[in-house]
Structure of Two-component system response regulator:
Amino acid sequence: MIVIVDERELVKKGFSSLFDREGVASAGFRSDEFGEWVESAAESDLKSVSAFLIGDCGEDKISPRRLRDRSGAPVIALSEHHSLENTLKLFESGVDDVVHKPVHIREILARITAIRRRTQEEANYTEIGPMRIFMDGRDPEINGEPMPLPRRERRILEYLATNSGRRVTKTQVFNAIYGIFDDEVEENVVESHISKLRKKLREKLGFDPIDSKRFLGYRLVV
C-alpha cells in the first residue's frame, strides 16, 4: 500500500485512481490526519505501507526523519517547484527522493522499487525454487517461462515472496493489496485470490507452493 499525504482532496483522489489502475492499493491523508494516524497505527498496518508520497503539506508539517521512527518505507517528496533550492531543501529534510510533477505513476513505482533495492540490498526479484518472482510489476517466471497473472494475484505472490520464510495473515495480505481503508471490498476476497493463484501454480509446478494454516496465515515454501 502507498500512502499519499496532501492537503488537496483532488490530488489524493487523482493519485489513488492512478495507483488503482496499476493494481496498487493506496490511502490518502491530510497532513494533520496523517500525523495522528502514524502515531497511533498498529505496527502491522505500517508494515503494509510500501512508500509514503509527501505532497503539498505546508512548511515542516511532516518530518521524514521522525516518520522513520515508525516505518522503514521509502519517503518520496512530490514537488511542483523545479528550483534547485527547493529540491535541496527537500533532501535536507530527510526524504529518499524528490519527484517533480507532472510525473507518470509508473515512474513513481519504479523509483520506489529502486529505493527499496538500494536500502535493503535486494535484487528486483526473488527466486524460490523454480520460481522467479519480480518486484517491479512483471509477471513471474517458472523455469524461465513467463506465467501471466491477473494483477491482484501477481501482487499477492509478490507480497508472499517479500515475506519469504515468514507466515503472513489474511489481514496482512488484504492490507497490502487493497489498503487498510478499503471498506468496499470484503477481506475474504483474499481467500478467493489465493485459491486461484494456488491452482495455477500447482498446474505449473506440480505441487502447491503456498502453505496455509487456519488462523495463522500463508507462506511460500519449496
The CA atoms of residues 80 and 101 lie 5 Å apart. The mean pLDDT is 87. The chain has two domains: 2-120, 125-220.
